[in-house]
Design goal:
This protein is mostly helical and 326 residues long. The chain contains 15 helices and 2 strands.
């Protein structure tokens, strides 16, 4: 019995239509039809999925001389399955967490503002000593960052039941892909709008600083740096809010960009993504260090903001080099 006949036999034994099998295999109905007509042969990855799905050995599927079904030793599939209820729960959890994660990220960007503003007031308005201003500013910065970290940790614990989506290969049960695609298409316009607004805010953020810099007033230039950070923080909030929701849907649809590195269909893509993430993190960490060291040693707050522009350009180059989507 050839592979095509075995697929037909097993599919009918489970009471599935070609469309249902196609959804479980994450392929088109035409692909299943071609398998069953012996026009094409599933690749190794698809054969492994068929073996797991039907609970039979790969030898049984590929060896024509084996007529009787050979079942796997374990009745339980080694591949984790995501039910429709699981998918709804995961999307709801990430949608709820998206606001918190976006807010925490925004807090991190906003955290230096009190320090910058108080230092400016102490130097130009003499409302308090510079030491007092720095002490209060650093205290507020640490408190805000601590609050942000607490939010990140809490969201991480809330996502614990779904961590397997990032760690192991999984399959979605019938109806999950259709439901997720429906939600994704409904959210697509909002996702595009939020990202467009975020990009516009980032591009426009230096404008107040440039305008004030023309007046040669260092005090107001420093305050405009605070405004710049506030605008960028708003943009970051929109990016993260939209990105977390979008990524959750992409992950359930098993987009290669979000597939676990250990089982990604494209190993080169997975390796590049890991390197890209590491380099990207190092770039932004270095940018923050350079920004604060340069700013506090020179007091040239109206100039040092260019560090973030340069970092953003480098980030874009990194993504281009490693072929990753922003």
């Amino acid at each position: 019995m050839i592979l095509a006949d075995k697929i037909i036999r097993l599919r009918k034994k489970n009471g599935w239509s070609q469309e249902e099998l196609a959804e479980k295999m994450n392929v088109s109905r035409q692909a299943v039809s071609k398998w069953e007509a012996a026009q094409t042969i599933p690749d190794l990855e698809k054969l492994m999925k068929l073996s797991s799905l039907f609970g039979v050995t790969i030898d049984y599927l590929v060896k024509d001389e084996i007529e009787d079904e050979e079942f796997t030793d374990s009745e339980e599939s080694p591949i984790k399955r995501v039910s429709l209820a699981d998918a709804h729960a995961y999307l709801a959890s990430r949608a709820h967490a998206a606001k918190k994660i976006a807010f925490a990220t925004m807090l991190c960007v906003l955290s230096p503002i009190p320090l910058i503003a108080l230092t400016a007031f102490s130097e130009y308005k003499a409302l308090m000593s510079e030491g007092t201003a720095v002490a209060i500013g650093v205290g507020v910065l640490l408190a805000v960052v601590t609050a942000a970290v607490a939010i990140f940790v809490k969201c991480g614990f809330a996502n614990a039941p779904f961590e397997f989506l990032d760690e192991v290969y999984f399959e979605t049960e019938y109806g999950v892909a259709g439901m997720v695609n429906e939600k994704k298409n409904a959210y697509r316009q909002k996702h595009s709008l939020l990202n467009t607004i975020g990009v516009c805010l980032c591009v426009a953020s230096p404008i107040p600083l440039i305008v004030v810099a023309l007046t040669l007033s260092e005090f107001y230039a420093v305050l405009m740096v605070c405004l710049l950070l506030a605008i960028v923080a708003s943009a970051v909030f929109l990016f993260v809010l939209s990105g977390v929701k979008w990524a959750s849907m992409q992950r359930l649809l098993r987009d290669p960009e979000y597939a676990p590195n250990c089982v990604c269909l494209d190993e080169k893509m997975a390796r590049n993504k890991k390197i890209c993430d590491s380099v990207e993190g190092a770039v932004w960490a270095c940018a923050a260090a350079v920004y604060f060291i340069w700013s506090f040693t020179t007091d040239a707050w109206h100039v040092t903001w260019v560090v973030w522009v340069i970092a953003a350009e480098i980030d874009g180059i990194i993504h281009a080099i490693f072929g990753q989507k922003n």
